[in-house]
Amino acid sequence: MALPSPTTAILFDQLFTGKIRLRLLSRLLLNPGNQVYLRQLQKELGVSSNTVRLELNKLLEMKLITVAEGEEGKIKKYVANSFHPLYDNLRSIIFKFIGVDQLLEEVFYKLGDVVEVYLTGDMAEGKESPFIDLVVVGDIDRSYFDTLCTKAEKLLNKKIRTAVYTLVEFDLSLIHEVPHVCVYNSEWGGGGKG
């Protein structure tokens, strides 16, 4: 599968009217359980609070995000609206944009005995990162896996860091404290459902 071309990047910018909205959507759609607030986003994105507020208001108007239930104090927390009719499609686009779909095709579909793959760390929170951190669960040929990851790193222009566990060794409590999102499960066979 080909990487996003410069034309694709321009299309994304037009579709999402700029990088701030795309980064906000990535932040919220990659791990839909995340709740974010204005000042946090301002710091992460390195833009004014007014810019973030305007984009959040536009996303609220489109009903792509909602204000989280049970606000603590006066701080509004925002969360992805997983009930929006375009939620799955937009999430799939975000996976394509950051390269997770290519990673699945180029690495995990070729390994065969993969049970689950979790995206962890900054990217799991929708933050930009030069690293793709993964937890892989399954009985895999580690040498072949490393070869596939090296090829994928060149395609994606990102360093891939992995932790590999057998099904017997793995328990969700191992990644409980780390931001994570399941991007592959052998039962549903692809990314974007977790």
Word description of this protein:
- It is a single chain.
- Strands 6-5-4-7 form a 4-stranded mixed sheet, with helices on one face. A 3-stranded antiparallel sheet has the order 1-3-2.
- Helix 7 (142-156) links the parallel strand 5 (131-138) and strand 6.
- The chain has helices at 6-15, 19-29, 38-45, 49-61, 87-98, 100-111, 142-156, and strands spanning 36-37, 65-67, 77-80, 114-120, 131-138, 159-165, 180-185.
- Helix 2 crosses helix 5, helix 3 (38-45) packs across helix 4 (49-61) and helix 6 packs antiparallel against helix 7.
- The protein is 42% helix and 19% strand.
- The protein is an alpha+beta fold and 194 residues long.
- It is elongated.
- It has 7 helices and 7 strands; from the N terminus they run H-H-E-H-H-E-E-H-H-E-E-H-E-E.
- The longest helix has 15 residues, at 142-156.
- The chain folds into 2 domains: 6-90, Winged helix-like DNA-binding domain superfamily/Winged helix DNA-binding domain (Arc Repressor Mutant, subunit A, Orthogonal Bundle), CATH 1.10.10.10; 99-185, 2-Layer Sandwich (Beta Polymerase, domain 2).
- Residues 1-5 and 189-194 have low confidence and may be disordered.
